[in-house]
Amino acid sequence: MNGYIPLPHTPADNPVLLINPHAPLVELLACADQRIRALHKLMNSLSCMTAQTADASDLFQIADIASLLLGDGVALLDVAQGQAMERADKAF
């Protein structure tokens, strides 16, 4: 795959969503930030729900979305951290 890293939770045998580990650090962080902030907003909305306003299918869907966003965000942060560590090692 030419060094590209598949995002987690790929539903297929051949991943189609890939992380470019050579992308600029700022772009990796921006993508991770977007997913983590979206998850934060989703969790804020969830905290406003009550047992009377949510049903089991809503909670399942929210949990599925949260897992997907957080998994992507963490994968992007892992690549960004690896890139930052490589830069730090080269600086010394």
Overview of the molecule:
The chain is mainly alpha-helical and 92 residues long. The protein has one domain (24-91). Helices cover 64% and strands 4% of the residues. The chain contains two helices and two strands, in the order E-E-H-H. A two-stranded antiparallel sheet has the order 1-2. Helix 1 (25-47) runs antiparallel to helix 2. The radius of gyration is 17 Å and the shape is elongated. The two termini are 31 Å apart. The model has no long low-confidence stretch (mean pLDDT 92).
- Domains (count): 1
Could you say which structural class the secondary elements and strand pairing correspond to? mainly alpha
By DSSP, the count of extended strands is 2
Q: Could you tell me how far the N terminus lies from the C terminus, measured between alpha carbons in angstroms?
A: 31 Å
Stretches where pLDDT falls below 50 for ≥5 residues? none
Number of continuous helical runs: 2
Strand order, main sheet: write it out: 1-2
Order of helices and strands: EEHH
Beta strand %: under 5%
Summed up, what is this model?
With about 90 residues, this protein is mainly alpha-helical. The chain has two helices and two strands. The chain is about 65% helix and about 5% strand.
Write the SSE topology.
Blueprint: E1 5-6, E2 18-19, H1 25-47, H2 56-91
Antiparallel strand pairs: 1-2
Entry keywords:
92 residues; 4% strand; single chain; mainly alpha
